[in-house]
Design a protein that fits this description.
With about 190 residues, this protein is of the alpha+beta class. The chain has one domain (about 10-190): Aminopeptidase, CATH 3.40.630.30. It has five helices and seven strands; from the N terminus they run E-H-H-E-E-H-E-H-E-H-E-E. The chain has a four-stranded antiparallel β-sheet with strand order 1-2-3-4, sandwiched between helices. Strands 5-7-6 form a three-stranded antiparallel β-sheet, sandwiched between helices. Residues about 35-40 have low confidence and may be disordered. The protein binds coenzyme A. The site of coenzyme A has 19 residues, from strand 4, helix 4 and helix 5. Coenzyme A binds next to strand 4, helix 4 and helix 5.
Length: about 190
């Protein structure tokens, strides 16, 4: 039997040409009830701090500034690389993923981990999250990390399966964090 393959996706740096798609992505996420799972904070996993911005252009610029310690807006935060996940066949943004370079602070070490991600609601259950994480692990390896921490709420079966499919090894479950939920912590060796 022929196996259906998911469409090829790639990770790109956010740029102004994707501004409209970024706005659409956020709208679709919130329309799907995304806010409720973020403790009312309006966060979108994989799109760092986007809830703090009035427009996509300032967020895109902030992502660029966060890449290097010399330009990071807040030195109490870790540097990070933000990616949009684009489907090659139609150039559509189908996901977002952020690689944090260091686990600075209690929140990231316990509840956030190195990588945060999401897939837009209309493109879920097609295998994209697994492939998106696989591509981001390659980026993490290229960056020089030799292991990464991934965290998910114990109620988030899709995220847990995504982590396990990419070699996640369970370490612990901790109560708390912004979500107030039990958070499962997994390490992936690179
Ligand atoms: C979690 C999320 C990224 C999964 O994206 P996705 O593209 O639907 O995931 P995939 O299609 O790659 O599926 C990955 C695995 O999870 C399973 N899965 C996906 N959604 C699921 C769900 N709602 N319930 C149970 N299992 C689910 C799939 O069956 C697959 O498992 P398998 O390999 O054993 O078959 C997506 O639901 C999402 O963006 N959620 C909101 C943001 C979020 O929770 N981010 C993660 C924070 S830790």
């Amino acid at each position: 039997m022929k196996t259906e393959r998911i469409n090829t996706i790639k990770l790109i740096s956010p740029s102004n040409e994707y501004a409209e798609q970024i706005v659409e992505y956020c709208a679709e996420f919130y329309a799907d009830g995304g806010k409720a799972i973020f403790d009312g904070g309006g966060k979108i996993q994989g799109m760092a701090h986007i809830q703090n911005f009035d427009n996509p252009f300032d967020w895109i610029e902030s992502c660029r500034l966060y890449e290097k310690y010399d330009t990071i807006p807040n030195r109490e935060h870790t540097t990070a690389t933000q990616y949009l996940t684009v489907r090659e066949s139609d150039n559509k943004v189908i996901g977002a993923i952020q690689l944090r370079h260091e686990l600075i602070g209690h929140e990231l070490l316990n509840f956030g981990g190195h990588i945060g991600y999401s897939i837009r609601p209309s493109e879920r259950r097609k295998g994209y999250a697994k492939e998106q994480l696989r591509l981001c692990l390659e980026k993490a390896r290229e960056y020089g990390l030799d292991q990464v921490l991934l965290c998910c709420a114990n109620t988030n079966a899709g995220s847990r399966q995504t982590i396990l499919a990419n070699g996640g090894k369970y370490e612990s479950t901790i109560l708390g964090g912004e979500s107030g939920l039990y958070v499962e912590r997994y390490w992936i060796q690179l």
